[in-house]
User: Fold these one by one.
Assistant:
Number 1:
Amino acid sequence: MFKPIRLIPDNPNIPFLKLRMPALCLSAFLIIASLALCFTVGLNFGIDFKGGLVIEAKFKDAPDVTALRTELNGLNLGQITLQQVGADASDVMFRIPQQTGGDAGNQTAIAAVRGHFGDRVAEYRRIEAVGPQVGGELIKTSIYAVLLSIGGTLSYLWFRFDRGFSIAAVVCLLHDVILTLGFFAILHLDFDLSTVAAVLLISGYSLNDTVVVFDRVRENMRKYRSKPFLEIAHLSLNETLFRTMMTSGTTLLVLVSLFVFGGEVIRNFTTALIFGIVIGTYSSIYVATPVWLLLEKKRA
């Protein structure tokens, strides 16, 4: 009989909470820095929000991107960005800004690109056009979606647990969302609808991890009534450590595979999720639990 491989001992006793105050100070600094980046540098909104055209073309022969940029600048379509996508150098994505004249102007731009390249393109794999009014509406609805999810989370947790747990969980949730936005701002990655979906998924994952820890804390509070809250939190984090690491580890394995083999179309989506899973695991230990301890320190 083979013994199972155990990455974590049966009864871990890792003193996570010894670093709770430095971790909270680090998280506060990262939140402030992320907000500053969002308001100064700003997010690199994609076509979904700004409006414009995205054309993904597969050329018969691998083109020179610099030469293509020079060619397209001669079409007078605005500041066009080019990017080779995937492992094949013959796949190129064009991002063309919103054209004057609305849909008619966009269709004229698509026709100009098609006519310019002619038989040099084997296949147009993707052509998307989004108007500026639609983009503005998408920004508004995305903000509403995030705010409603946070409000619903606070209401549910207030009903399911008590005030201290619910406030700590929402602080943890805001921490993960703001740091993800700062991550996209500092790297200037495209922020589109798929990224908004990733942010909502990160919120759900982080919340799930936090609720598991808090549920164990509540059970141990009933079981060990004479122990101080700090010891109960320390015990609960160690008891849920195996579940946390296994869930995060298996999720990251899938996401890394999607990042490597999934192609450029879902690259920003998987990047946001990988960052969010790491931050969510950290925050459930070093943000949610320490904040709860600060809120409950005056209770008997």
Number 2:
Amino acid sequence: MDEKKTVMSQAKKDMNEIDPRLNIIYSHIIWYISEYPESASKGRGKNSPEPLSSEYIKENAHKFYQARLPKKPKPPATIPDEVVSIILDEYFNVPNKSLQRAKKEHLLSMGAEGLVGDLIERYLSSIMEAHGWLWCAGAIIRGVDFIKPPGNENHSWTLLQVKNSDNSENSSSSAIREGTEIKKWFRRFSRRADSNWDNFPDDKIKHLLSEKDFIIFVRSYLKKIK
């Protein structure tokens, strides 16, 4: 049995013990990593298992499953900087009685913003996985959020990285894409009130996506987990 079949077989077995509904998706992600091992996200810590080892496949099966579980927005645990209140008071003329509320709502906004990227991936997954795409939940593959295996229409892997805004990519994620075939797409423009769904890089799927439907999805998702 060659390496591809071996690692895919183990991936299916490990995921079957966690959630059988995900075994095909997870095994295909491990298939991709078996062809491009340099794409595997490195584990934290010096004792992290080597990519494609039995320990790696088993460990990431749990990580992949956990990443797909519903995620609730959480405000940052950091303590607000009191100087921010001084700036709000002295420069922006926020009334002193409103400062505490402003700080609290700022933290809530930060928590909400931190969830938007995850919500975009969940929305896309709800539509794209019926069309051959696979959501790489848990950041298993570096700089890639969705992959599409080779098939009748595409003879090689198709890779996609998604971002919430046109200014939300950091330098590290950009560098990962250099010299690769990873496509990039963002949801919204940062300097004008407009979305970017019409430019989604899959012509067979983009007509199924819209800002209106995304908002409906977000509201429904949040009501279920509240």
